[in-house]
């Protein structure tokens, strides 16, 4: 099985105090153990780094620790998907045509990445947003 992981799941798996840590870590660990293939958006690495280094936790996560977390847990074990300029333009057009605003654009971009790989599951902590944006994929979208 191949599963796409939203940034929210990567962050939850990385932070012991996160309310979804146990479930997110279990899903990520299945990829690390080779039980199934993991896919993420290349942009999620930058987004997760930004979140990890700004989280209000004590002690704060040092930038080098955030990099280590991302390298060891995700870069080594997941395939990364990037978008081309034309794909960004298509997502922008789709968002505007549907009248969707604000931060939904980030979920739409992640879903576009998920569509580039044949994924049986799309893990996110934003299930309602993802299903709103991609009703045709709703049977694959779930929380870990």
What keywords describe this structure?
144 residues, alpha/beta, Rossmann fold, 7 helices
CATH superfamily: 5'-nuclease
- Please give the number of β-strands: 5
Tell me the β content. Answer: 5-15%
Question: Which whole number gives the mean pLDDT?
Answer: 96
- The number of distinct helices, counting runs of at least 4 residues, comes to 7
How are helices and strands ordered from N to C? EHHEHHEHHEHE
Largest pleated sheet: 5 strands, parallel
**Structure classification:** alpha/beta
CATH architecture: 3-Layer(aba) Sandwich
How many domains is the backbone divided into?
A: 1
CATH topology type? Rossmann fold
In the CATH scheme, the class would be Alpha Beta
Describe this structure as you would to a colleague:
The chain has seven helices and five strands. With 144 residues, it is an alpha/beta fold. The protein has one domain: Rossmann fold. Helix 7 links the parallel strand 4 (121-123) and strand 5 (141-142). The longest helix has 14 residues, at 85-98.
Annotate the secondary structure layout.
Elements: E1 2-5, H1 7-14, H2 21-32, E2 37-41, H3 42-54, H4 63-75, E3 78-81, H5 85-98, H6 104-115, E4 121-123, H7 127-133, E5 141-142
Parallel strand pairs: 1-2, 1-4, 2-3, 4-5
Summarize the structure in short.
By secondary structure, the protein is α/β, with parallel strands linked by helices. It has helices spanning 7-14, 21-32, 42-54, 63-75, 85-98, 104-115, 127-133; strands spanning 2-5, 37-41, 78-81, 121-123, 141-142. The model has no long low-confidence stretch (mean pLDDT 96).
């Amino acid at each position: 099985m191949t599963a796409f992981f939203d940034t929210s799941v990567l962050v939850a798996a990385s932070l012991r105090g996160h309310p979804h840590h146990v479930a997110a870590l279990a899903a990520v660990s299945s990829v690390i153990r080779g039980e199934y293939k993991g896919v993420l958006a290349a942009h999620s690495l930058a987004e997760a780094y930004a979140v990890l280094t700004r989280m209000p936790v004590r002690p704060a996560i040092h930038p080098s620790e955030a990099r280590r977390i991302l390298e060891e847990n995700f870069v080594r074990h997941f395939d990364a998907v990037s978008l081309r300029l034309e794909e960004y333009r298509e997502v922008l057009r789709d968002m505007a045509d549907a009248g969707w605003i604000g931060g939904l654009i980030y979920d739409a971009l992640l879903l576009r990445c998920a569509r580039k790989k044949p994924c049986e599951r799309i893990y996110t902590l934003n299930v309602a947003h993802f299903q709103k944006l991609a009703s045709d994929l709703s049977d694959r979208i779930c929380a870990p």
